[in-house]
């Protein structure tokens, strides 16, 4: 005779399990009943964690699908409801950061701002953003200012190089009229 074992529902022993306290849909969060401050805060932590992680998860998911099945952005778009460009952005950022280099104390958007940089510069800027509690906008502004300074310095360097080349290059006039190398006096004028 077989003994029948019935599953006993797991009892909630911790206030951190708040999944059953609210209904979540693509357009709403609705509590099932009144909740106290602690439960409400736990719900907020859970929602925040989901929100901060979603772009990473989707980017990793798209990259997995691309590696395993080939580029499937159209299908991924239909499946997730995200447009193709957003999926490409999420996949790109996820591909630029190994999981060990992703910083939980910064948003996906912080990482997106530095994704195009080499890994050592990414680390530098993310560390700076975390230490100084930079918003995404401030980080973006700092990076733009740095790029502008570099572009100005490069432009100035190009102008100096061009000016040196003009000074060093013989001109048509110099070939047509001999000039004193010390004072610039036109020698043909002296002959007249």
Structural summary, described in words:
- Helix content is about 60%, strand content about 5%.
- With about 190 residues, it is mainly alpha-helical.
- The protein has a two-stranded antiparallel ribbon with strand order 1-2.
- Helix 1 (about 35-70) packs across helix 3 (about 85-95).
- It is elongated and about 100 Å long.
Average pLDDT across residues? 84
* Count of alpha and pi helical runs: 8
Please summarize the sheet with the most strands.
2 strands, antiparallel
How far apart lie the N and C ends? 133 Å
Tell me what portion of residues adopts beta-strand conformation.
under 5%
Class by SSE composition: mainly alpha
Poorly predicted regions:
1-5, 7-18
Overall shape: elongated
Q: How would you write the strand order of the largest sheet?
A: 1-2
H/E element order = EEHHHHHHHH
Record field, number of beta strands: 2
Q: What percent of the residues sit in helical stretches (DSSP H or I)? A: 55-70%
Roughly how many Å is the radius of gyration? 32 Å
Write the layout of secondary structure elements.
Elements: E1 22-25, E2 28-31, H1 37-69, H2 73-80, H3 84-96, H4 108-114, H5 119-131, H6 136-168, H7 172-176, H8 187-191
Antiparallel strand pairs: 1-2
Summarize the structure.
This protein is mainly α and 192 residues long.
Q: What are the salient characteristics of this protein?
A:
mainly alpha, two-stranded antiparallel sheet, 192 residues, 8 helices, single chain
């Amino acid at each position: 005779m077989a003994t029948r074992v019935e599953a006993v529902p797991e009892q909630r022993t911790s206030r951190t399990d708040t999944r059953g306290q609210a209904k979540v849909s693509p357009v709403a969060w609705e509590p099932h009943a009144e909740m106290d401050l602690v439960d409400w805060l736990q719900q907020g932590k859970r929602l925040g964690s989901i929100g901060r992680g979603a772009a990473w998860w989707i980017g990793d998911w798209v990259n997995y699908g691309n590696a395993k099945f080939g580029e499937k952005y159209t299908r991924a778009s239909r499946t997730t409801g995200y447009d193709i460009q957003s999926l490409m952005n999420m996949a790109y950022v996820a591909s630029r950061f190994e999981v060990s280099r992703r910083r939980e104390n910064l948003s996906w958007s912080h990482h997106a701002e530095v994704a195009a940089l080499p890994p050592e510069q990414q680390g530098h800027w993310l560390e700076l953003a975390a230490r100084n509690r930079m918003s995404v906008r401030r980080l973006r502004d700092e990076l733009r200012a740095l790029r502008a300074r570099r572009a100005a310095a490069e432009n100035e360097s190009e102008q100096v190089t061009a000016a040196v080349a003009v000074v060093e290059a013989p001109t048509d006039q110099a070939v047509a009229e001999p000039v004193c190398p010390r004072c610039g006096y036109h020698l043909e004028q002296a002959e007249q």
